[in-house]
Amino acid sequence: MEKILLDTSVLVKFFSPDEKDKKIDLLLDKIAQKKIKLILVDVALYELVNALSLSKKISSLTVFENIAAILDLEPEIISFSADLIKRGLIFMEKFNLTIYDSLFIAAAEQKKVPLLTADYKHHRKSISKNIVYYKEFNSV
Amino acid sequence: MNTIVSSKDARAQFAEILNQVMYAGREFIISRFDKPIAKITPIQSASEDKDMTKRKNVISKIVSMRKVFQTVDLTKIVIREREKEYRRWKKFS
Question: Of A29, A46, A60, A102, most Cβ neighbours within 10 A?
């Protein structure tokens, strides 16, 4: 089964897709069908809560329901580990990134999976061969 | 397609019905006094049905939440917040 690590910048598109973007629905369908295994870094869930809370005046219950819907997709969640932090710190130092941004890249490298991102500023392709830009992503 | 068999026939042909379910993937509805009572269905197709229903529920749950965020670009918010964090970090590093 194909595996993919989603950056928060793509994960949030499940809830607010671009108008003409059909890719996100295909991706969602494949994940739900278990044709693609969704991998997330735990930080992504906190970022998701943050983005949802900042987007509109929505209740905490609605935020929770959004998170629960993502968890229903049965993602593999990568949590804190010494190895992940160690890898993250290397990216942080080498590429002048915050630890949060580094963790996604480190996790993709650790799991040997692509990191699908729409954050082209903090996840530059030159940093890692695992980084795949959402705008160039065609394999769904 | 479902085949309807009476409880009397089902009892008499039970081994054959099981073979049809197992090897041909057929489904049988058992009736008593012309009323459908039970269904014999391959386990694999039952679990596939369950998976399909679950999948549709998950997707429709996510899609239904889009109404709330119709005019919002959540990707932009994520990147904006990261940029703020980056600037804060740069200031003190």
Answer: A102
- What residues of B are in contact with residue A16 (Cβ under 8 Å)? 66, 69-70, 72-75
Instruction: Report pLDDT digits (tens) over A35-76.
Output: 899 999 999 999 999 999 998 778 899 899 999 999 999 999
CB contact under 8 A, B59 and A98: no
Give the one of A47, A55, A69 whose C-beta lies nearest to B61's C-beta. Answer: A69
Please answer whether residues B83 and A69 qualify as being in contact, where contact means their C-beta atoms are separated by less than 8 angstroms: no
Q: B79 near A117, Cβ under 8 Å?
A: no
For B80, the token pair is 């904006």
Contact, A123 vs B82, CB < 8 A? no
CA A134 – CA A9 distance, rounded (Å): 9
Token pair listed for B46: 């039952």
B77 and A56 within 8 Å at the Cβ level: the answer is no
Q: pLDDT at position B74, please?
A: 93
A32 CA to chain B: closest CA distance, Å? 5
Six-digit token string for A83: 């190895």
Query: What is residue A7's three-state secondary structure?
Result: coil
Tell me the H-state helices in A56-118.
60-71, 82-95, 99-111
Q: How far apart, in Å, are the Cα atoms of B42 and each of A126, B15, B25?
A: 52, 14, 6
Which chain B residue's Cα is nearest to A118?
Answer: B75
